[in-house]
Amino acid sequence: MIVYRTKLLKREIDLGLEIKGVTVPALLIKLDSNKSFEENLKELEEKLSSAFFKGSVSILDLKDTNLSEEQLEKIEQLLKKYNTKVLGYKTENTKKVVRKIPEITERKSLKVVNKTLRSGQRIEYDGDVLIIGDVNPDAYVIASGNVIVMGTLRGVVHAGANGDETATVMALKLIPQQLRIASFLTRSPDNPEIPEYPEKAYIENQQIVIERIK
């Protein structure tokens, strides 16, 4: 079953707490030094509740902050609650950087494909895939992480191919022949309408949900 929604979403939030896209699909999170830790934590949860950030990875900007290990743990637990993974810390504090070096080193880099995939072409990658171009019918994109298409996605796409249900698929025009996230599968209708706006697909309540991105 596939669910469609229309919702106004912001990629960059310009209130006190900063959540910015630093590279697809990573987020840079910076606490507001003029607010208490509890206020920052509450505001962070309000922003992360947006479906747009579901399944993303994040970098915590800890410059000009003096958080305890307990406070860092609370932030990480909150991010985990909304399926947002911590990639690392942006800070001059060496101890905090060392704490995350193994995770950063082991993570696969983003694969950028700077061309249109034509019929019969196939991309497979253990990590996130960004395609700057279209994915034509009968072209295949398979990734263990997220798939982002800066064009029209008309082919077959499988995100979270290793079973990651937090993976997402984003495209400027999302009309795939077949779309899979982990073990969930859906197809476009025979004569689909061409969307006039970018969309994002993800898993929620054991079904694939597609939302408009603005």
What does it look like?
The longest helix is centred in the middle third of the chain and has 13 residues, at about 70-80. The strands form three sheets. A seven-stranded mixed beta sheet has the order 1-16-15-12-10-8-6, with no helix packed on it. Strands 7-9-11-13-14 form a five-stranded mixed beta sheet, with no helix packed on it. The chain has two domains: about 1-105, Transcription Regulator spoIIAA, CATH 3.30.750; about 110-210, Pectate Lyase C-like. The chain is of the alpha/beta class. The chain contains four helices and 16 strands. The chain has helices at about 35-50, 70-80, 95-100, 100-105, and strands at about 1-5, 20-25, 25-30, 55-60, 85-90, 110-115, 120-125, 130, 140-145, 145-155, 155-160, 170-175, 180, 185, 200-205, 205-210. Mean pLDDT is about 75; it is low at about 1-15, about 20-25 and about 95-105.
List keywords for this structure.
4 helices; single chain; Transcription Regulator spoIIAA; 214 residues; Pectate Lyase C-like; 16 strands; elongated; 7-stranded mixed beta sheet; alpha/beta; 5-stranded mixed beta sheet
- Look at the structure and give the CATH class of the largest domain: Alpha Beta
Mean pLDDT: 77
Main sheet, how many strands, which sense, barrel?
Answer: 7 strands, mixed
Secondary structure: number of strands: 16
| Structural domain tally | 2
> Strands of the largest sheet, in order across it?
1-16-15-12-10-8-6
Q: Segments where pLDDT lies below 50 for 5+ residues? A: 1-16, 18-25, 93-107
- Percentage of helical residues? 10-25%
CATH architectural designation of the largest domain: 2-Layer Sandwich
Structural class, by secondary structure, is: alpha/beta
- In terms of DSSP E residues, the strand content is 35-45%
User: How do the SSEs run, as a string of H and E?
Assistant: EEEHEHEHHEEEEEEEEEEE
What is the radius of gyration? Answer: 18 Å
